Amino acid sequence: MPDAPGRDEPDAAHGAGSLGRRGRYERAQRRRSTLIASVSTVLSVAALAVLIPLTPGWDRVQQSFFSWSVFRDSLPQLWSPFLLNLKIFVICAPCILVLGMLVAMARNVRSPALFPVRLFAATYTNVVRGVPVILWITLIGFGVPGLFQKRAWYTKGIVWGSVALVVCYSAYVAEVFRAGIESVHESQRAAARSLGLTSRQTMLGIIVPQAVRRVVPPLMNDLVSLQKDVALVSVIGTVEALRRATILKDKTFNFTPYVAAAVLFLLVSIPLTVLTDFLLARERRMTGSTAVR
Amino acid sequence: MNDGATIPKLSLLNVEKSFALRKVLDDVSLDVGTHQVVSLIGASGSGKSTLLRCVNLLESINEGKILLDGTDISEPGLAVDPIRRRIGMVFQSYNLFPHMTVLRNVTHAPRKVLGTARTEAEADAKELLGRFGLAEKAGAYPDQLSGGQQQRVAIVRALAMAPELMLLDEVTAALDPVLVGEVLNVIREVRSAGMTMVLATHEMGFAREISDVVCFLRDGRIHEQGPPEQIFNAPTETGTAEFLARVIASGRL
Questions:
Q1: Which of A186, A180, A142 is nearest to A161 (CA)?
Q2: Which of A112, B116, B163, B173 is the Cys-Cys partner for B110 at CB 3.0 to 4.6 Å?
Q3: What average pLDDT is seen over chain A?
Q4: pTM of the model
Q5: How sure is the predictor about A12, in pLDDT bands with cuts at 50, 70 and 90?
Q6: What band does B2 get if pLDDT is binned at 50, 70 and 90?
Q7: Which chain B residues have any C-beta within 8 angstroms of a chain A C-beta?
Q8: Does residue A5 have a pLDDT over 70?
Q9: Taking CA A125 as the corner, what is the angle to CA A121 and CA A129, rounded to the nearest 5 degrees?
Q10: pLDDT band at B152, cuts 50/70/90?
């Protein structure tokens, strides 16, 4: 395909004449699929917008979930607790990526002497993943501070709630990394080792970079999920966005603060996913060969 | 080959290798002198690739010895990395690192293993790439190259470590005839620079042209070895003759 594929109307002015029979056919096809996509989207959204308000309970639901005045009042009050969510997320995420990668690499060590390391890593992922996140947060968040006599920063629930998040998510992320590491073909290892690279240099320089690129989408999945699960530390009394929304709900007898909180979560997670998709597409354009239709 | 005074670059002494219960290499003995080119021919599964992988210590052997410059490199527990950096290996499926440009593919090992400075490694790499007609591909990624170009880059990558010995494992098996030609030219060039090489190949014409010694492998044994004229024109073993007759029948010689 010499002229930009996937682009609509590559210079329509002098395009029509210079396009061959095949080019004209493909352009018609592209226009047709764009048209179908737009029409079907408009119709579905319109149907929802018309049909939902026709349900018998709509007025009540609109009043208690989508009250504009409550939304306007609660959003600013949710903002600073939501910053706490973000803070927990921003601190936990790098810890999770590092710990997850370490566990994944530990599960991949081949030396027989390091079998205990492998066993420990496997046990860790299996035990941690087998228990609900909310339970870990409760157990670690309430349990560990009980070990200390005095009150200090390290006896706060929020600290141990975050630790619990790191413990849980590292296990999930480790499995994602492990899948990535194992997906890199053995021949890459052979090529690297045959050049004299040590097993460590091979892992860090050759295997892991390829593995990470492959698992970015599932990794983002886990990070977006973490971004939401930060709200679970509310169960040990930390006043973050969800907790604050509950308080506001109790005050106003209205569920709209929850919707406002949801909007805040979306404000972070959607740009996060769009950014990764963009980065991945760019990476593929740079290193890849021509895309297959 | 071993005429007493000079130690061969590489010696295999009664090498034996089994996968599970199957013997893949059986009592293989072979000497490769410095600057010599030895070709391994034989049907698929005859042990050619395994032999090369054993020499590069990617596989461990069960019996026998492998000597590099007279030193046993097959001894269990020996540090393998310093030995591997003296031996270059090129694979059938290129095995370039897809996340690195051509230039980084070539400079990565010299920089990490030999500690060559970046500017120096890049200058060396560009010189090598230029010699093999790849100068303008330095910034490309492997997936953007043809198979022949990728394989030439793989050879350059191995050469960048300045190895004493090169092992080529059916490096043209995945290429069409035109691309085979360009890769073979590169190997001719490497030979003319005096590189010691052991190559497993299905290109009989090329093996005849480039080798000092041709080894015919069958069922993990060296069935016959000798100068190419002997192996191709007047094989003494019936097995060799049969194999060559089959190759000729399929139009590959």
A1: A142
A2: B116
A3: 87
A4: 0.81
A5: very low
A6: very low
A7: 53, 56, 58, 80-82, 84-89, 91, 93, 95-99, 108-109, 112-113, 141, 143-144, 154, 157-158, 161
A8: no
A9: 170
A10: very high
Provide, rounded to the nearest whole percent, the portion of chain A with pLDDT above 90.
52
CA gap B187, B152 in Å, rounded: 9
Q: Which residues contact A288 (CB under 8 A, 6 or more apart)?
A: B141, B143, B144
How far the first Cα of chain A sits from its last, in Å, is 11
| Distance in angstroms (rounded) separating the CA atoms of residues A87 and A76 | 17
- Nearest to A246, CA basis, from A69, A59, A77: A77
Gap between the Cα atoms of A174 and A122, Å rounded:
10
CB-CB neighbors (< 8 A) of A201 in chain B: 112-113
Chain A contact probe: residue of B59, B101, B112 with most A CBs at under 10 A: B112
> SS3 for A277?
helix
For tokens 């080119």, what's the residue?
B37
Residue with token string 């198979």: B147
Place of tokens 């130690």: B7
CA distance A260 to A55: 23
pLDDT for residue A289: 63
pLDDT band with cut points at 50, 70 and 90 for residue A291: low
pLDDT of residue A290: 61
Rounded CA-CA distance B101/B110 in Å is 15
Alpha helices in B132-235 (DSSP H): 147-159, 177-192, 204-210, 228-233
Cα–Cα distance, A116 to B19 (Å, whole number): 27
Query: CB–CB of B5/B176 below 8 Å?
Result: no
Q: Is the pLDDT of residue B162 over 70?
A: yes
Residue pair A174/A121 in contact by the 8 Å Cβ criterion: yes
Report the residue from B89, B144, B157 with minimal CB separation from A289: B144
pLDDT band at B156 (very low <50, low <70, confident <90, very high): very high
B188 touches B203 (CB < 8 A)? no
Task: Using alpha carbons, list the distances in angstroms from residue B204 to A140, A220, B18.
Answer: 69, 52, 27
CB distance B218 to B227 below 8 Å: no
Phi, psi of A4, rounded to the nearest 5 degrees = -30, 110
